[in-house]
Structure to design on (134 residues):
């Protein structure tokens, strides 16, 4: 009799704790959107924090957010391991190219190249997560 009462009391406690744990993750705004074409107000060209080349802070932010998103989806099983490995490989390629471009500051063409690469990675991530749901 006591175990039945404990089970009945334990279920709502577990549900409430699951909601409390997941609420901060649900409240996060990743701020990653597809952006085709030239940069808008949020991605304006300008000098980066080192004082030369085109601004790369928004690219850095997007790359970090995408990497974290890939890690989260892979860890939760929302995308297949094979797809996660492919996306991680592409992110590593992107980061190597970003470091190479950043040596002399980003030109407009380099900025566009990096931006389009992030767009492609994000598109593939969205397709992989959509396919995994069905």
């Amino acid at each position: 009799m006591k175990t039945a009462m404990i089970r009945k009391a334990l279920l709502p406690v577990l549900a409430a704790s699951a909601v409390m744990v997941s609420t901060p993750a649900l409240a996060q705004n990743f701020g990653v959107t597809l952006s085709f074409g030239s940069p808008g107000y949020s991605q304006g060209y300008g000098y980066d924090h080192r004082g030369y080349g085109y601004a790369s802070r928004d690219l850095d932010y997007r790359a970090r957010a995408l990497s974290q998103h890939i890690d989260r989806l892979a860890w939760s099983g929302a995308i297949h391991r094979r797809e996660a490995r492919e996306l991680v490989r592409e992110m590593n390629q992107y980061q190597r190219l970003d470091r190479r471009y950043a040596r002399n500051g980003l030109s407009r063409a380099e900025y566009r190249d990096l931006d389009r690469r992030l767009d492609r990675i994000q598109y593939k991530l969205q397709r992989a997560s959509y396919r995994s749901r069905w």
The radius of gyration is 20 Å. The chain is about 70% helix and 0% strand.
